[in-house]
Amino acid sequence: MTYREILRRIQFRLQGRVVHLRPKNTPKGRVLISYTTLPFLDTRERTLNAHSNRWECKQMAQEFLDRGYAVDVIDFDNTRFVPKHAYDFCIDPHENLERLDPFLNAACIRVYHATNAHWLALNSAEYSRLKDLQQRRGVTLLPQRSIKPGHGVDFANIISTVCGTYANETYTYTGKQMFQIPVSSTHTFDAPADKNFDQARNQFIWFGGAGAVHKGLDLVLEAFAAMPQYRLLVCGKFGEPDFQAAYHTELYETPNIKSVGYIDPQSDEFEKIRKESLGIVYPSSSEGCATSVVVAMHAGFIPIVSPETGVETKEFGITLSQNTVEEIQKQVRLLAAEPRERLQERAKAAQHYASTHHTRAQFAEKYRTFVDTLETERQK
Questions:
Q1: Which of 14, 70, 139, 294 could, after both became Cys, cross-link 27 (CB 3.0–4.6 A)?
Q2: Sign of CA dihedral 273, 290, 325, 236
Q3: Are residues 252 and 151 in the same domain?
Q4: CB–CB of 187/295 below 8 Å?
Protein backbone atom coordinates (compact mmCIF):
# COMPACT_ATOMS: atom_id res chain seq x y z
CA MET A 1 0.00 0.00 0.00
CA THR A 2 1.36 3.41 -0.96
CA TYR A 3 1.90 6.34 1.41
CA ARG A 4 -0.92 8.20 -0.36
CA GLU A 5 -3.31 5.29 0.22
CA ILE A 6 -2.36 5.11 3.91
CA LEU A 7 -3.16 8.81 4.27
CA ARG A 8 -6.43 8.25 2.43
CA ARG A 9 -7.45 5.55 4.91
CA ILE A 10 -6.58 7.74 7.89
CA GLN A 11 -8.62 10.61 6.45
CA PHE A 12 -11.49 8.18 5.78
CA ARG A 13 -11.67 7.22 9.46
CA LEU A 14 -11.35 10.81 10.64
CA GLN A 15 -14.24 11.81 8.37
CA GLY A 16 -16.61 9.23 9.85
CA ARG A 17 -15.94 6.49 7.27
CA VAL A 18 -17.13 8.66 4.39
CA VAL A 19 -15.24 9.23 1.13
CA HIS A 20 -15.75 12.81 -0.09
CA LEU A 21 -15.22 13.42 -3.81
CA ARG A 22 -15.30 16.82 -5.45
CA PRO A 23 -15.64 17.85 -9.09
CA LYS A 24 -13.14 20.21 -10.72
CA ASN A 25 -15.44 23.21 -10.47
CA THR A 26 -18.00 24.43 -7.95
CA PRO A 27 -20.45 21.55 -7.34
CA LYS A 28 -23.87 21.94 -8.90
CA GLY A 29 -25.36 19.41 -6.50
CA ARG A 30 -24.55 16.45 -4.26
CA VAL A 31 -24.92 12.66 -4.54
CA LEU A 32 -24.77 10.00 -1.83
CA ILE A 33 -23.67 6.50 -2.89
CA SER A 34 -24.10 3.80 -0.26
CA TYR A 35 -22.21 0.89 -1.80
CA THR A 36 -18.47 0.25 -1.22
CA THR A 37 -15.67 2.62 -0.26
CA LEU A 38 -12.89 0.10 -0.91
CA PRO A 39 -12.01 1.14 -4.50
CA PHE A 40 -11.48 4.72 -3.33
CA LEU A 41 -9.14 3.65 -0.52
CA ASP A 42 -7.16 0.94 -2.31
CA THR A 43 -6.64 1.66 -6.00
CA ARG A 44 -4.51 -1.37 -6.79
CA GLU A 45 -5.61 -3.31 -9.85
CA ARG A 46 -5.94 -6.56 -7.92
CA THR A 47 -8.39 -4.83 -5.58
CA LEU A 48 -10.53 -3.48 -8.42
CA ASN A 49 -10.46 -6.87 -10.16
CA ALA A 50 -11.47 -8.89 -7.10
CA HIS A 51 -15.18 -8.21 -7.66
CA SER A 52 -17.07 -6.36 -10.38
CA ASN A 53 -18.90 -4.12 -7.89
CA ARG A 54 -15.68 -2.32 -6.92
CA TRP A 55 -14.90 -0.90 -10.33
CA GLU A 56 -18.61 -0.33 -10.97
CA CYS A 57 -19.05 1.74 -7.80
CA LYS A 58 -16.03 3.83 -8.73
CA GLN A 59 -17.44 4.38 -12.21
CA MET A 60 -20.84 5.32 -10.82
CA ALA A 61 -19.22 8.04 -8.75
CA GLN A 62 -17.16 9.21 -11.72
CA GLU A 63 -20.25 9.67 -13.89
CA PHE A 64 -21.67 12.11 -11.35
CA LEU A 65 -18.33 13.86 -10.84
CA ASP A 66 -18.04 14.40 -14.58
CA ARG A 67 -21.37 16.21 -14.51
CA GLY A 68 -20.30 18.54 -11.71
CA TYR A 69 -21.75 16.83 -8.63
CA ALA A 70 -19.96 16.37 -5.34
CA VAL A 71 -20.16 12.72 -4.33
CA ASP A 72 -20.13 11.18 -0.86
CA VAL A 73 -19.53 7.42 -0.67
CA ILE A 74 -20.24 5.15 2.30
CA ASP A 75 -20.36 1.38 2.66
CA PHE A 76 -23.78 -0.21 2.24
CA ASP A 77 -23.51 -1.71 5.74
CA ASN A 78 -22.61 1.60 7.39
CA THR A 79 -25.38 1.96 9.96
CA ARG A 80 -24.01 5.05 11.69
CA PHE A 81 -23.79 7.60 8.90
CA VAL A 82 -26.33 10.41 9.10
CA PRO A 83 -26.55 12.89 6.20
CA LYS A 84 -25.46 16.44 6.98
CA HIS A 85 -26.28 17.80 3.53
CA ALA A 86 -29.16 17.84 1.12
CA TYR A 87 -28.68 15.35 -1.72
CA ASP A 88 -30.00 15.35 -5.26
CA PHE A 89 -29.68 11.56 -5.49
CA CYS A 90 -29.14 8.74 -3.01
CA ILE A 91 -28.13 5.29 -4.29
CA ASP A 92 -28.07 2.07 -2.27
CA PRO A 93 -28.20 -1.69 -3.08
CA HIS A 94 -29.59 -3.03 0.20
CA GLU A 95 -31.44 -1.83 3.30
CA ASN A 96 -29.60 1.46 3.91
CA LEU A 97 -32.12 3.29 1.74
CA GLU A 98 -34.78 2.52 4.32
CA ARG A 99 -32.60 3.66 7.24
CA LEU A 100 -31.53 6.86 5.52
CA ASP A 101 -34.98 7.84 4.25
CA PRO A 102 -36.02 9.99 7.26
CA PHE A 103 -32.77 11.99 7.01
CA LEU A 104 -32.99 12.69 3.27
CA ASN A 105 -34.57 15.82 1.87
CA ALA A 106 -37.92 15.29 0.16
CA ALA A 107 -36.60 16.28 -3.29
CA CYS A 108 -33.82 13.69 -3.18
CA ILE A 109 -34.36 10.94 -5.74
CA ARG A 110 -33.87 7.59 -4.06
CA VAL A 111 -32.34 4.87 -6.24
CA TYR A 112 -32.31 1.19 -5.37
CA HIS A 113 -29.35 -0.38 -7.19
CA ALA A 114 -30.32 -4.04 -7.50
CA THR A 115 -27.37 -6.43 -7.51
CA ASN A 116 -29.24 -9.54 -6.40
CA ALA A 117 -32.74 -10.90 -6.20
CA HIS A 118 -35.13 -9.50 -3.62
CA TRP A 119 -34.09 -10.76 -0.18
CA LEU A 120 -37.29 -12.78 0.17
CA ALA A 121 -36.59 -14.70 -3.05
CA LEU A 122 -32.86 -15.03 -2.37
CA ASN A 123 -33.24 -16.29 1.18
CA SER A 124 -36.06 -18.64 0.23
CA ALA A 125 -33.94 -20.08 -2.58
CA GLU A 126 -31.01 -20.84 -0.29
CA TYR A 127 -33.21 -22.42 2.37
CA SER A 128 -34.91 -24.53 -0.28
CA ARG A 129 -31.54 -25.86 -1.46
CA LEU A 130 -30.49 -26.59 2.12
CA LYS A 131 -33.74 -28.46 2.74
CA ASP A 132 -33.29 -30.50 -0.46
CA LEU A 133 -29.75 -31.37 0.63
CA GLN A 134 -31.02 -32.43 4.04
CA GLN A 135 -33.45 -34.83 2.37
CA ARG A 136 -30.84 -36.24 -0.07
CA ARG A 137 -27.90 -36.62 2.28
CA GLY A 138 -29.32 -36.54 5.79
CA VAL A 139 -27.20 -33.55 6.79
CA THR A 140 -28.19 -30.04 7.87
CA LEU A 141 -25.88 -27.23 6.77
CA LEU A 142 -26.10 -23.58 7.72
CA PRO A 143 -27.06 -20.80 5.28
CA GLN A 144 -24.11 -18.76 3.98
CA ARG A 145 -25.61 -16.24 1.57
CA SER A 146 -28.85 -15.11 3.19
CA ILE A 147 -29.21 -11.34 3.46
CA LYS A 148 -30.88 -9.12 6.02
CA PRO A 149 -34.59 -8.49 5.40
CA GLY A 150 -35.61 -4.92 4.75
CA HIS A 151 -37.78 -2.55 2.77
CA GLY A 152 -35.02 -0.70 0.92
CA VAL A 153 -36.51 -1.11 -2.55
CA ASP A 154 -39.92 0.04 -1.30
CA PHE A 155 -38.43 3.45 -0.43
CA ALA A 156 -36.95 3.92 -3.90
CA ASN A 157 -38.26 6.19 -6.64
CA ILE A 158 -36.51 4.19 -9.35
CA ILE A 159 -34.52 0.95 -9.67
CA SER A 160 -31.24 0.49 -11.50
CA THR A 161 -30.32 -3.15 -11.96
CA VAL A 162 -27.32 -5.19 -13.05
CA CYS A 163 -29.38 -8.37 -12.67
CA GLY A 164 -30.76 -10.84 -15.18
CA THR A 165 -34.37 -11.83 -15.81
CA TYR A 166 -34.79 -14.06 -12.74
CA ALA A 167 -33.74 -11.44 -10.19
CA ASN A 168 -35.43 -8.54 -11.98
CA GLU A 169 -38.77 -10.33 -11.82
CA THR A 170 -38.57 -10.45 -8.03
CA TYR A 171 -38.94 -6.64 -8.00
CA THR A 172 -41.87 -6.30 -10.41
CA TYR A 173 -44.33 -6.23 -7.49
CA THR A 174 -43.10 -2.69 -6.69
CA GLY A 175 -44.40 -1.31 -9.97
CA LYS A 176 -41.35 0.97 -10.08
CA GLN A 177 -39.45 1.93 -13.22
CA MET A 178 -36.49 -0.39 -13.71
CA PHE A 179 -33.39 0.61 -15.70
CA GLN A 180 -31.22 -2.24 -17.00
CA ILE A 181 -27.44 -1.93 -16.83
CA PRO A 182 -25.18 -4.83 -17.89
CA VAL A 183 -22.92 -6.20 -15.17
CA SER A 184 -19.27 -5.73 -16.03
CA SER A 185 -16.48 -8.29 -16.00
CA THR A 186 -13.34 -8.18 -13.89
CA HIS A 187 -11.32 -9.99 -16.57
CA THR A 188 -11.25 -10.35 -20.34
CA PHE A 189 -9.28 -12.79 -22.48
CA ASP A 190 -8.04 -13.45 -25.96
CA ALA A 191 -9.23 -16.70 -27.52
CA PRO A 192 -6.97 -19.65 -26.60
CA ALA A 193 -4.67 -20.13 -29.57
CA ASP A 194 -4.21 -23.87 -29.25
CA LYS A 195 -7.28 -25.28 -27.52
CA ASN A 196 -7.92 -28.89 -28.48
CA PHE A 197 -11.67 -29.42 -28.10
CA ASP A 198 -11.42 -33.17 -28.54
CA GLN A 199 -9.15 -33.32 -25.50
CA ALA A 200 -11.09 -30.69 -23.56
CA ARG A 201 -14.59 -32.10 -24.15
CA ASN A 202 -14.64 -34.22 -20.98
CA GLN A 203 -13.35 -31.63 -18.49
CA PHE A 204 -15.53 -29.01 -16.79
CA ILE A 205 -15.20 -26.47 -13.99
CA TRP A 206 -17.31 -25.13 -11.16
CA PHE A 207 -16.14 -21.58 -10.51
CA GLY A 208 -17.78 -19.55 -7.79
CA GLY A 209 -17.69 -17.63 -4.55
CA ALA A 210 -18.73 -18.43 -1.00
CA GLY A 211 -21.94 -20.31 -0.27
CA ALA A 212 -21.36 -23.74 -1.83
CA VAL A 213 -24.92 -25.06 -1.53
CA HIS A 214 -26.44 -21.73 -2.53
CA LYS A 215 -24.31 -21.84 -5.69
CA GLY A 216 -25.04 -25.49 -6.51
CA LEU A 217 -21.67 -27.06 -5.81
CA ASP A 218 -23.31 -29.92 -3.92
CA LEU A 219 -25.33 -30.85 -7.01
CA VAL A 220 -22.30 -30.61 -9.29
CA LEU A 221 -20.15 -32.78 -7.02
CA GLU A 222 -22.83 -35.46 -6.80
CA ALA A 223 -23.30 -35.38 -10.57
CA PHE A 224 -19.63 -35.81 -11.43
CA ALA A 225 -18.90 -38.33 -8.68
CA ALA A 226 -21.30 -40.66 -10.51
CA MET A 227 -19.72 -39.91 -13.94
CA PRO A 228 -16.08 -41.05 -13.66
CA GLN A 229 -15.53 -40.56 -17.39
CA TYR A 230 -15.82 -36.77 -16.93
CA ARG A 231 -13.41 -34.60 -14.94
CA LEU A 232 -14.42 -31.70 -12.70
CA LEU A 233 -12.18 -28.91 -11.38
CA VAL A 234 -13.62 -27.08 -8.37
CA CYS A 235 -12.35 -23.50 -8.53
CA GLY A 236 -13.22 -20.77 -6.07
CA LYS A 237 -14.41 -20.55 -2.49
CA PHE A 238 -15.95 -23.60 -0.87
CA GLY A 239 -14.31 -23.39 2.53
CA GLU A 240 -17.35 -23.65 4.82
CA PRO A 241 -16.36 -26.32 7.38
CA ASP A 242 -19.74 -28.03 7.44
CA PHE A 243 -19.83 -28.30 3.65
CA GLN A 244 -16.29 -29.65 3.46
CA ALA A 245 -17.14 -32.24 6.09
CA ALA A 246 -20.31 -33.30 4.27
CA TYR A 247 -18.56 -33.52 0.87
CA HIS A 248 -15.05 -34.52 1.93
CA THR A 249 -15.16 -37.70 -0.18
CA GLU A 250 -16.24 -35.88 -3.35
CA LEU A 251 -13.87 -32.95 -2.83
CA TYR A 252 -10.73 -34.83 -1.86
CA GLU A 253 -11.09 -38.55 -2.46
CA THR A 254 -12.82 -38.87 -5.83
CA PRO A 255 -10.33 -39.50 -8.69
CA ASN A 256 -12.15 -37.48 -11.37
CA ILE A 257 -12.72 -34.43 -9.14
CA LYS A 258 -9.92 -32.01 -8.25
CA SER A 259 -10.41 -29.26 -5.69
CA VAL A 260 -8.35 -26.33 -6.96
CA GLY A 261 -9.64 -23.69 -4.52
CA TYR A 262 -9.17 -19.98 -5.06
CA ILE A 263 -7.64 -19.18 -8.42
CA ASP A 264 -6.63 -15.89 -10.03
CA PRO A 265 -8.14 -15.64 -13.53
CA GLN A 266 -4.95 -13.86 -14.62
CA SER A 267 -2.72 -16.72 -13.47
CA ASP A 268 -0.91 -19.29 -15.59
CA GLU A 269 -2.86 -21.99 -13.76
CA PHE A 270 -6.17 -20.55 -14.91
CA GLU A 271 -4.82 -20.20 -18.45
CA LYS A 272 -3.96 -23.90 -18.43
CA ILE A 273 -7.40 -24.80 -17.10
CA ARG A 274 -9.25 -22.81 -19.76
CA LYS A 275 -7.25 -24.48 -22.52
CA GLU A 276 -7.98 -27.93 -21.14
CA SER A 277 -11.64 -27.54 -20.11
CA LEU A 278 -14.86 -27.29 -22.08
CA GLY A 279 -17.42 -25.58 -19.90
CA ILE A 280 -18.57 -24.19 -16.59
CA VAL A 281 -21.35 -25.96 -14.67
CA TYR A 282 -23.06 -23.54 -12.30
CA PRO A 283 -26.59 -24.37 -11.04
CA SER A 284 -26.86 -21.50 -8.55
CA SER A 285 -30.07 -21.00 -6.61
CA SER A 286 -30.09 -17.20 -6.87
CA GLU A 287 -27.86 -14.54 -8.42
CA GLY A 288 -28.21 -11.05 -9.76
CA CYS A 289 -26.06 -11.90 -12.75
CA ALA A 290 -23.38 -14.46 -11.89
CA THR A 291 -20.11 -12.65 -12.53
CA SER A 292 -18.09 -15.86 -12.23
CA VAL A 293 -20.03 -17.22 -15.20
CA VAL A 294 -19.51 -13.95 -17.09
CA VAL A 295 -15.74 -14.20 -16.50
CA ALA A 296 -15.81 -17.85 -17.58
CA MET A 297 -17.62 -16.93 -20.80
CA HIS A 298 -15.01 -14.25 -21.49
CA ALA A 299 -12.46 -17.04 -21.08
CA GLY A 300 -14.24 -19.22 -23.65
CA PHE A 301 -16.03 -21.68 -21.36
CA ILE A 302 -19.41 -22.94 -22.55
CA PRO A 303 -21.97 -22.29 -19.78
CA ILE A 304 -24.29 -24.95 -18.34
CA VAL A 305 -26.23 -22.87 -15.83
CA SER A 306 -29.49 -22.51 -13.95
CA PRO A 307 -31.98 -19.79 -14.93
CA GLU A 308 -31.31 -18.25 -11.54
CA THR A 309 -27.77 -17.25 -12.55
CA GLY A 310 -29.26 -14.41 -14.58
CA VAL A 311 -26.91 -15.20 -17.48
CA GLU A 312 -28.21 -15.39 -21.03
CA THR A 313 -27.09 -18.59 -22.77
CA LYS A 314 -28.65 -17.85 -26.18
CA GLU A 315 -27.56 -20.43 -28.79
CA PHE A 316 -24.13 -21.05 -27.31
CA GLY A 317 -24.90 -22.34 -23.82
CA ILE A 318 -27.33 -24.52 -21.93
CA THR A 319 -29.89 -23.39 -19.38
CA LEU A 320 -30.89 -26.25 -17.10
CA SER A 321 -34.58 -27.12 -17.13
CA GLN A 322 -34.25 -28.43 -13.57
CA ASN A 323 -31.63 -27.93 -10.90
CA THR A 324 -31.12 -31.61 -10.24
CA VAL A 325 -28.20 -34.04 -10.31
CA GLU A 326 -29.87 -35.95 -13.13
CA GLU A 327 -30.39 -32.88 -15.33
CA ILE A 328 -26.79 -31.78 -14.82
CA GLN A 329 -25.55 -35.22 -15.82
CA LYS A 330 -27.78 -35.26 -18.89
CA GLN A 331 -26.60 -31.88 -20.17
CA VAL A 332 -22.92 -32.59 -19.49
CA ARG A 333 -23.15 -35.82 -21.49
CA LEU A 334 -25.00 -34.17 -24.37
CA LEU A 335 -22.57 -31.26 -24.61
CA ALA A 336 -19.47 -33.45 -24.38
CA ALA A 337 -20.77 -35.64 -27.21
CA GLU A 338 -21.19 -32.79 -29.70
CA PRO A 339 -18.88 -32.57 -32.75
CA ARG A 340 -15.65 -30.62 -32.31
CA GLU A 341 -16.78 -27.94 -34.78
CA ARG A 342 -19.98 -27.30 -32.84
CA LEU A 343 -18.08 -27.02 -29.56
CA GLN A 344 -15.72 -24.50 -31.15
CA GLU A 345 -18.71 -22.49 -32.37
CA ARG A 346 -20.32 -22.50 -28.93
CA ALA A 347 -17.13 -21.38 -27.16
CA LYS A 348 -16.49 -18.62 -29.68
CA ALA A 349 -20.09 -17.40 -29.44
CA ALA A 350 -20.01 -17.42 -25.62
CA GLN A 351 -16.86 -15.32 -25.64
CA HIS A 352 -18.30 -12.95 -28.25
CA TYR A 353 -21.51 -12.45 -26.26
CA ALA A 354 -19.58 -11.69 -23.08
CA SER A 355 -17.24 -9.29 -24.87
CA THR A 356 -20.12 -7.35 -26.43
CA HIS A 357 -22.54 -7.34 -23.46
CA HIS A 358 -20.54 -7.59 -20.23
CA THR A 359 -17.65 -5.14 -20.25
CA ARG A 360 -16.66 -2.07 -18.31
CA ALA A 361 -17.24 0.05 -21.39
CA GLN A 362 -20.80 -1.27 -21.71
CA PHE A 363 -21.49 -0.65 -18.03
CA ALA A 364 -20.16 2.91 -18.25
CA GLU A 365 -22.21 3.70 -21.35
CA LYS A 366 -25.46 2.37 -19.88
CA TYR A 367 -24.90 4.00 -16.49
CA ARG A 368 -24.23 7.30 -18.21
CA THR A 369 -27.62 6.98 -19.91
CA PHE A 370 -29.18 6.15 -16.56
CA VAL A 371 -27.77 9.33 -15.04
CA ASP A 372 -29.35 11.21 -17.97
CA THR A 373 -32.66 9.69 -16.90
CA LEU A 374 -32.12 10.74 -13.29
CA GLU A 375 -31.28 14.31 -14.23
CA THR A 376 -34.37 14.53 -16.43
CA GLU A 377 -36.47 13.25 -13.56
CA ARG A 378 -34.85 15.73 -11.19
CA GLN A 379 -35.82 18.64 -13.42
CA LYS A 380 -39.51 17.76 -13.50
A1: 70
A2: positive
A3: no
A4: yes
Q: What CATH number has the domain bearing residue 47?
A: 3.40.50
Q: Which of 232, 207, 165 is nearest to 295 (CA)?
A: 207
CATH code of the domain containing 314: 3.40.50.2000
By residue count, the chain amounts to: 380
* pLDDT tens digits, one per residue of 258-293: 999 999 999 999 999 999 999 999 999 999 999 999
Local confidence band at 13 (pLDDT 50, 70, 90 cut-offs): low
Q: In what order do the strands lie in the sheet with 19-21?
A: 19-21, 69-75, 29-35, 89-92, 109-114, 158-161, 178-180
Comparing CA positions, the residue from 324, 288, 337 lying closest to residue 308 is 288
Number of domains forming the structure of the chain? 2
Question: Rounded to the nearest 10 degrees, what angle do helices 217-225 and 325-336 cross at?
Answer: 60
* pLDDT tens-digit readout, 178-235: 999 999 999 999 987 789 999 999 999 999 999 999 999 999 999 999 999 999 999 9
Say whether both 27 and 108 belong to one domain.
yes
How confident is the model over 307-327, as pLDDT tens digits? 999 999 999 999 999 999 999
The boundaries of the domain holding residue 17 are 3-119+144-184+359-379
Residues 6+ apart with CB under 8 A from 12: 18, 19, 37, 41
Phi, psi at residue 216, to the nearest 5°?
Answer: 80, 15
Residues 171 and 280 both lie in one domain: no
Please give the angle made by the CA atoms of 263, 267 and 272, to the nearest 5 degrees. Answer: 90
pTM: 0.94
Residue 134 inside a domain? The answer is: no
Whole-number Å distance between alpha carbons of 158 and 109: 8
Whether residue 246 is predicted with pLDDT greater than 60 in this model: the reply is: yes
